[in-house]
Amino acid sequence: MRSKYLLSLVLIVMLVSGACALQPNPAASMAEQAVTAMPAAIEAPATVVPPAAVSPTAAPEPKTLTVLAAASLTESFSEMGKLFEANNPGVTVAFNFAGSQQLAQQLDQGAPADVFASASKKYMDAAVTSKRVSKYDAKTFVTNRLVVIFPKENPAGLKELKDLAKPGLKLDLADKSVPAGQYSLDFLGKAVKDPGFDLSFKDSVIKNVVSYETDVKAVVAKVSLGEVDAGIVYITDYNAGADKLEKLDIPDALNTVATYPIAAISDSKNSDLANAFVGLVISPEGQKIMAKYGFVPSVTDSAPGTVNP
C-alpha cells in the first residue's frame, strides 16, 4: 500500500509540472506583439535648410562730374545735367559757370575738371595750349549770336540800333576778355563801315558804357533790374529772361556767329563719364535741348551718352 501511494504521488507531481510548462505567458506575448507592431526603423525628422541669402544689388559708387561751362550755357546745361544724372545713377554733375576766359585760366592753373565747354574757340585753344585738352577732342556743338537787350519799360526809348549812341544812355557790356564782349566790339567796328551808321557811332556808343562785366549773365542781371538802359548779350540770354526784357536784333552782316566747342579734359579722373557727357551734348537728344534755349545745333547725329555700369 505504501508503494502504491508513493507511485500515485509521483504521477500527480509529473502531471502538474507538465501543465505548468504548457500554459502560455501573457506578459511575454504582449511584449512580443509590441515588438512586432513597432516600425522597422524610426525616421529622424527632416533637416530644414534655410534658403541661401540673396545679396542686394550694390548701389553704384557715387561720383561727381565737374563741368566748366560758359555762363551763357547755364540754363541749357543745367537741364542737360539733370538728364545725364538720370541716365547714370550715382553720378552728380557739378557745374562751374563763368566767362570762358576765367574757365580757361582756371584750367591753366591746374583746376581739377572733367569737361570744358567754351563760348569761343579762342579759349578752347588756350586749354589745348595748357595741355588740359587734346586738340583732336574738341567739337563744336552749337552756335549763338548777339542781340541788344533792354528792360520792358524801355526807359531810354530804344527803337533801333542807332539809338545806342544817344548821349546819356547807360549801356552795359561784357568785358572784351569775354567772348561776348569781344563780339560786341566787333559789331561796333563793323557798324562804322556800314553806310547806315555814322563814322562816330562806335566812339559814341563806347562813351555810353557804364560797366564791363566778367560774363554775360551779369549784363543780363543789370538790364533786368533796370540799373542800365541796355546791354549786348546772346540771343539765348534774352530767351532766358524774356519775361523782363525786350530786344533789338543785330543784322547778320554786323553780327558775329559765336561757335561753342566742348571737350573732355585729358587728365580727367572720370574719363568714361566725361566722354559720355560730351556724347550726350552732341547727341540728337542733347542738340534738341540746346535748340530749346535758342542755340543753333551744329551736330546732326551721334549716340547719346550713357555709361554702362
Topology of helices and strands:
Blueprint (H helix, E strand, L loop, with lengths): L1 H21 L3 H12 L25 E8 L3 H14 L3 E8 L1 H9 L6 E3 L3 H9 L9 E6 L1 E6 L19 E4 L4 H13 L9 H7 L1 E5 L2 H9 L5 E5 H6 L4 E5 L8 E7 L6 H12 L1 H9 L3 E2 L12
Helix pairs in contact: 3-11, 4-5, 10-11
If you had to describe this structure to a student in words, what would you say it looks like?
Helix content is 39%, strand content 19%. A 6-stranded mixed beta sheet has the order 2-1-3-10-4-11. Helix 3 links the parallel strand 1 and strand 2. It folds into 2 domains: 120 residues, D-Maltodextrin-Binding Protein, domain 2 (3-Layer(aba) Sandwich); 104 residues, D-Maltodextrin-Binding Protein, domain 2. The protein starts with a helix and ends in a 12-residue tail after the last strand. It is α/β, with parallel strands linked by helices and 309 residues long. The protein contains 11 helices and 11 strands.
